[in-house]
Each structure stands twice: as structure tokens, then as C-alpha cells.
Amino acid sequence: MSELKNKVMGSIKKNEVKMHSKNFFKIIKALTEIGIVALTLLVIFLINLSFYLPRKGLGLELGANRWNHIISVVPWWIVILGVAGIGLLIWLIYRYTGAYKKRLVWIIGIVSIVIVIAGFALSVSNFNETVGKGFGQMNGNGQGNGYHHNRD
Questions:
Q1: Are 82 and 88 in contact (CB under 8 A)?
Q2: Which of 3, 10, 35, 43 could cross-link 85 (Cys pair, CB 3.0–4.6 Å)?
């Protein structure tokens, strides 16, 4: 143990270790938590789009090639971003929140299930239509994106 103590003290004396105040660590913790919350909301939104866009793109008549049609309307890049976001979120939670004390399998399962359920619930709500109408009204030229055109 004395060898470790001497090594640490030597690092401190050589200025290889930087000292920080408690406030520094509080700010880092707050920024980490804000980042985790922001990433969670982004991933839920991406998973929402992964459910909503294919359902919106599917017609009532699918015909004989229904599986080909279903696969073709899935926005795969959004699905990949959503899964990558879930992976990053799990890593952040496991690494920075004290979840390392728990089994990784439980963290993966709980985070994945919560994100997918929240994304699906958001996709079946009227959130997407409301946001879409809001973006249609916010177009800079006052025209909207097809939601409020007057056809004279």
C-alpha cells in the first residue's frame, strides 16, 4: 500500500493531477444528467418516428407483396439512429449514474423497453399531427407546408 501512496503523492507533486473544487464536479454531474435527459428525449422521438412513418406510409390495400411494401416504407436510417441512440444512452447511464452497481443485462432491458414503449405511445398519440401542423404554419413565407393553403 505504501508504494501506491508514494506513486499518488509523486503524481500530485509533479502537477500530473489537477485539483478541482466541489462545484466543478457538481456542474459536470448536472451537465451529464441534462445530456442524458436530452438524449433520452431524442431517442424517444426517433423511435416514435420509426413507428409512425411506416404506419402513415402504409395504404389500406397492401396486396400480394405486402411484406415488401412494409419493409420499403420503414425509414431504416431513423431506426438505425434510434438503436444507436439507445446504445449510447445505455452506456451513459451505466457509466455515469451509478448503474454500474447493477447487472448490465437489467440496464439494457429496462432502458430499451422504456424507450420503445414511450416511442410507441408517442406514435399513436396525436403528437406527430400536432407537431406537423405547427411546422406547416412556421414556414417563413407564410404559406405553410400544405396544411393551410387557400385554393381560389
A1: no
A2: 43
CA 116, 121, 126 angle in degrees (round to 5)? 140
75-102 pLDDT per residue, tens? 788 889 999 999 999 999 888 887 778 8
CB atoms within 10 A of CB 83: 16
Cα 81 to Cα 7, 41, 77: the distances in Å are 44, 13, 6
Instruction: Decide if 46 contacts 85 (C-beta within 8 A).
Output: yes
Secondary structure of residue 145 in the 3-state scheme: coil
Query: How far are the Cα atoms of 12, 20, 32, 60 from residue 23, in angstroms, in the given order?
Result: 21, 8, 14, 58
